[in-house]
Amino acid sequence: NAGVTQTPKFQVLKTGQSMTLQCAQDMNHNSMYWYRQDPGMGLRLIYYSASEGTTDKGEVPNGYNVSRLNKREFSLRLESAAPSQTSVYFCASSEWGRGYGYTFGSGTRLTVV
Amino acid sequence: QQQVKQSPQSLIVQKGGIPIINCAYENTAFDYFPWYQQFPGKGPALLIAIRPDVSEKKEGRFTISFNKSAKQFSLHIMDSQPGDSATYFCAALYTGNQFYFGTGTSLTVIP
Prior knowledge:
The structure holds 2 protein chains of 2 kinds.
Chain A: E1 4-7, E2 10-13, E3 19-25, E4 31-38, E5 42-49, E6 56-57, E7 64-68, E8 74-78, E9 87-94, E10 103-104, E11 108-112
Parallel strand pairs in A: 2-11
Antiparallel strand pairs in A: 1-3, 3-8, 4-5, 4-9, 5-6, 7-8, 9-10, 9-11
Chain B: E1 4-7, E2 10-14, E3 20-25, E4 33-38, E5 45-50, E6 56-59, E7 62-67, E8 72-77, E9 86-94, E10 98-101, E11 105-110
Parallel strand pairs in B: 2-11
Antiparallel strand pairs in B: 1-3, 3-8, 4-5, 4-9, 6-7, 7-8, 9-10, 9-11
């Protein structure tokens, strides 16, 4: 099925550990995004990539880095995980500038202890 | 600062009722307003969307009402069903394709 695939689905990290969240889309979309979802906060943009080769900060980029590996793949890295990064992370993709909605992945539930 | 303010936080209605979820924004540069539906353990899915040159849009049982002068828009769910129980997010589009989301409304439809 076409869509956005995220791995892993669940992860528990110790404070200070690093990890990379993977995202791939097969809809040939130009733009990709990373959001975090926290209770009462809605969805907040961490980083986005309008097109292959570009990345930009969103609302809450501190503590994260991203890589747009190719048109299909956009990864999110936590270099030194903190408990405040406990959240559900969603990757999404879309066509830039078309005003169409996002297609979201199913999420990664991350717990930092 | 929340760019899009959504209310209520939670909503419980009887089957067949018409839940209404409201959103308000300040930035007049927003030019596309979608609603997303999210079931537990899943990512949000686009439900319906509207542009500011239209005052109302219907798709099946879902209707968006848009008031440009008041900078408000709302989602109405006609003849609500238990299967509509989910979290609903409004959003607003800024600068090409950066969306700002509301904080979400948890809807429960009681059989």
